[in-house]
């Protein structure tokens, strides 16, 4: 078991996903057939044996709280520890869109101070991966590090899909000796910060206190980067599958990645299972007219049409004669007879009436808003 306190900071820019995040917080956006984005960082922590996880929330959190509830599906429904929703005191606090703003941490300081855990594991919410945090802890202790930052080595060609991002220069001993601005160019491979930080609880409290006293308000820039000359900061190299959900295009492409069986197996089972809220519903029913190729189809659907290279969420009805290709269909959508969909993202509850054709492109998939009828 990891002797660590977990913090998941879900304060993300909801606008990056446009229509998909209009009616829900970023962390509660449906993903991968039957999951929510929050399931990945939360499951990674639980799989490492972390028994106390705090969720830094802000506003529009109803659907996230309804999804997580008391944390029972993640075995966090305990009396002494468990899952905590840490909302700020809005009477004393002006919301900052910077998720690493020190004020987010000072307004929830009691959660950190009251813990008896030796370490703190801090994670953002928009990196989709399956990581073994036991290895991060071992790496941290073996190198006598003050702060360990999880990173991934990427090529200049891969960089675009992760921007905006924080890049690092790392030496042969995996020690971080320079941080790069997102607009700096490089011809060589670079180390991408995955917004996952491992350090002692005492050091985190010291950094927060020091930043607040000096009127410095960015935990990463002012707390970690500015102190990197005085502290030993190392980079743990993550080598597995990684997706950053920071645009509709990346959201769509990530779902297409899942149609690769090797990617699917790694993402959901490599270091431990990805857990989610259980919904006891019927298996999907396929009629004799249905045709499904290279697709991920969730339960409680009725499929009578043709589906190819698509991810289908729960409770979808696809009538006879409908054709769905290269698309992502979120829960409770209805696709009537003769409908053709290609490179489309349908949000929850969309109803496409008979004979309609909706086509986008791989670079610019069409997005249909929640509960729309066309």
TrEMBL record:
Its EC number is 2.7.7.27. Residues 20-179 form the Nucleotidyl transferase domain. It is an enzyme of class 2 (transferase). Transmembrane segments: none annotated. Keywords: Glycogen biosynthesis, Nucleotidyltransferase, Transferase. It comes from the Bacteria. It holds the Pfam family NTP_transferase. One of its GO terms (molecular function) is glucose-1-phosphate adenylyltransferase activity. InterPro entries: ADP-Glc_PPase, GlgDAde_trans, GlmU/GlgC-like_hexapep, NTP_transferase_dom, Nucleotide-diphossugar_trans, Trimer_LpxA-like_sf. Residues 288-358 form the Glucose-1-phosphate adenylyltransferase/Bifunctional protein GlmU-like C-terminal hexapeptide domain. Belongs to the bacterial/plant glucose-1-phosphate adenylyltransferase family. This is Glucose-1-phosphate adenylyltransferase subunit GlgD. It comes from Dehalobacterium formicoaceticum. The gene is glgD.
């Amino acid at each position: 078991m990891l002797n660590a306190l977990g913090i998941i900071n879900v304060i993300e820019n909801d606008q990056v996903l446009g229509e998909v995040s209009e009616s829900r917080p970023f962390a509660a956006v449906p993903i991968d057939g039957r999951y929510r984005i929050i399931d990945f960082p939360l499951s990674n922590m639980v799989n490492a044996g972390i028994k106390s996880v705090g969720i830094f929330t802000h506003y529009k959190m109803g659907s996230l709280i309804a999804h997580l509830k008391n944390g029972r599906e993640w075995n966090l429904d305990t009396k002494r520890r468990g899952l905590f929703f840490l909302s700020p005191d809005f009477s004393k606090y002006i919301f900052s869109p910077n998720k690493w703003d020190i004020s987010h941490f000072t307004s929830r300081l009691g959660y950190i101070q009251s813990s008896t855990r030796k370490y703190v594991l801090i994670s953002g919410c928009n990196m989709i991966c399956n990581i073994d945090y036991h290895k991060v802890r071992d790496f941290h202790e073996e190198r006598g590090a003050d702060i360990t930052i999880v990173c991934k080595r990427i090529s200049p060609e891969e960089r675009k899909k992760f921007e905006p991002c924080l890049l690092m220069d790392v030496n042969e001993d995996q020690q971080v000796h320079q941080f790069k601005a997102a607009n700096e160019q490089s011809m060589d491979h670079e180390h991408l910060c995955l917004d996952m930080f491992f350090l002692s609880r005492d050091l985190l409290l010291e950094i927060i206190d020091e930043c607040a006293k000096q009127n410095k308000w960015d935990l990463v820039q002012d707390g970690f980067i500015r102190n990197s000359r005085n502290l030993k900061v190392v980079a743990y190299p993550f080598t597995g599958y990684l997706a950053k959900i920071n645009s509709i295009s990346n959201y769509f492409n990530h779902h297409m990645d899942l149609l690769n069986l090797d990617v699917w197996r790694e993402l959901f089972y490599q270091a431990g299972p990805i857990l989610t809220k259980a919904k006891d519903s019927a298996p999907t029913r396929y009629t004799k007219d249905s045709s499904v190729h290279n697709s991920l189809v969730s339960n409680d659907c009725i499929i009578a049409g043709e589906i190819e290279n698509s991810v289908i969420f729960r409770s979808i009805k696809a009538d006879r004669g409908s054709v769905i290709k290269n698309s992502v269909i979120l829960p409770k959508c209805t696709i009537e007879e003769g409908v053709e969909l290609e490179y489309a993202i349908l949000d929850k509850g969309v109803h496409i009436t008979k004979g309609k054709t909706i086509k986008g492109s791989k670079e610019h998939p069409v997005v249909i808003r929640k509960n729309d009828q066309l």
